[in-house]
Description:
Two copies of one chain form a homodimer.
Chain A lengths: L4 E11 L3 E9 L5 E9 L3 E6 L6 E8 L4 E5 L2 E3 L6 H13 L1 E2 L2 E11 L3 E11 L2 E2 L12 E5 L1 H9 L6 H13 L3 E3 L1 H7 L1
Amino acid sequence: xxxxxxxxxxxxxxxxxxxxxxxxxxxxxxxxxxxxxxxxxxxxxxxxxxxxxxxxxxxxxxxxxxxxxxxxxxxxxxxxxxxxxxxxxxxxxxxxxxxxxxxxxxxxxxxxxxxxxxxxxxxxxxxxxxxxxxxxxxxxxxxxxxxxxxxxxxxxxxxxxxxxxxxxxxxxxxxxxxxxxxxxxxxxxxxx
Amino acid sequence: xxxxxxxxxxxxxxxxxxxxxxxxxxxxxxxxxxxxxxxxxxxxxxxxxxxxxxxxxxxxxxxxxxxxxxxxxxxxxxxxxxxxxxxxxxxxxxxxxxxxxxxxxxxxxxxxxxxxxxxxxxxxxxxxxxxxxxxxxxxxxxxxxxxxxxxxxxxxxxxxxxxxxxxxxxxxxxxxxxxxxxxxxxxxxxxx
Lengths: 192, 192
């Protein structure tokens, strides 16, 4: 199995750092050439699963214009040009929630679109979070912080109340890391 | 907490059914007006967690041009205009793997981008899958089917070998539904 070869890139649109759309001419391993393979470049972003010493997780209730709904989300934010994802995570957690942590752990890097690219979402776990300031995100959206136990948050996610794909993807490694989820005894037995 | 009001939509780019980019003029609840709020419309798609009677899950090894890598993915595909997501799921499972199922269950609907919109990814679980045909996806990518136990697939996902955000998001409800993951005894005890 071999990679595709990009022969040519034709930019269709560029909107500052927010979006770049291009059509690529690509050669497939079998020799076929596709003239207009669509590629999107969007900013990469971080998602943070932040836990307080009492076990509760920091969630945000806010309006999101993508789905046109008031939803539950995890703290998250766009990586500025040249910024390291871990720096973004620390910055966004403080800005959006007023919390800091000394116990950070990277969870996963995920690609937004298989075919078209998009950006990468970097998930982090921050434990032992403590509040040191008032939130001051500078975001357009009003953010209301809600505290949920891992169990409550998992149920909210499964019920569709936390509808962003990047939040759901971050919860799988996070809930395993903090011990809310584990392989079931049946699954372990079948593996033995 | 109130919704935003869209005052005006200015289309920047349209690429068939594949992409629409627009700038919206929106009014926030506090009265501020933002002139250039970016919105993307991309096709919605399905992701399928398909399990055989022997417990193993149908995975695909394929090159994906978004990440420019050969990756492990779940069967998935774009919803055609006017098509119901469940019809897409049945069609794509058959086309990409040659398998059918009589035991379908919807898992979750997830939004791709919180701010910009994007599409929706609909995840389904198909159990008791049986092979009735040879794969014939018509996709540009060569697809090699791999069978993995739920445990193996979860480890591959956690290790970054299955890097698509929509796959990782589908695994959380799927592994709970098929009993690979469960709330840990500690988590259950702390809830009691």
